[in-house]
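Issue: ligand-bound run for zinc ion - logging full I/O for the record.

Environment: standard queue, default settings, no custom constraints.

Inputs:
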Amino acid sequence: MLKINRRKFVANTVTSGAGLMLGSRLTGLTRKEEMVSDTADPKKDLMQEVLKYRKIDAHAHVDESYYKVEVNLDFADRLGIEKLMISDFIRPHTEGTPDDFRARNDFVIKCIKEHPDRFIGTVALNPKYQKASLEEIDRCHDAGMIGLGELYNQVKINDPLYYPVIEKCIGLNWNIMMHSAIGHSRVVLNPREPKNISLPEDFADVARRYPEAMFQYAHIGGGIDWENACKVLKDVPNVFVELSGSNNEANMIDFAMKYIGEDRLVFGCDYGFYQGVGHMFSAKLTDAQRKKIFFENISNRLKKGGRDVN
Ligand SMILES: [Zn+2]
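Outputs:
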């Protein structure tokens, strides 16, 4: 079967955004270029294939300046993403005070109240402020939020400061989604990374300490050495590995399938919507595997926490 490489596919989907917006066909692609993977059926319209899968974006953001609500919903509508798990994360290299994370969570609460059928709210907090963080979980739980995310790099995920927070989430059956690092190579981290950035090894450490807790390793396409991340998290069953990020090289999902497998991978976009959806169709996945990764895996986890999105 004819195919083009994934990089070309993503470039084409981005440049043909107008085509995506206007209709159900990728009008910027030739017939041959539509044959993007071994599993895509060339007789079918690509957008029809995209739209036939139910999807939950397990990594989405909102704020009032960059991660606009209306932009999120516009992409989601066109790509058939039913729900987005949103957060307004504490920005890197900031102190992350209670006033800061409460204000961010207030905005998320406003968003889920305005779009209860589309947005699932997750909580930002900083365990350096332990009492305020634990109280914030209660406050946000009462407001309808479910889960933590995207936790940022103020404190490492396996730091003892996180233990009471994780124990509270075990009680609530909440998903815990944590950011990870950007690195130039296997061993050298980007110099901008703070010392408390959580690495795959830190996730494995805390997940083994708390086997009942449910962790979500954010964006293997976010700049980390994803081959190493998949190897480190291979035998850690309570860590879901989420696929968003703008550095998603060809074969990343195929590689993750070998190490993590179809039951622990979850779809996400992190505001990179075409890449997030596009690489799911260039990967060699069966129909059943796509259903799990797009929707079922994270849906089952949310159900444990009391949110049935079906
Ligand atoms: Zn992140």
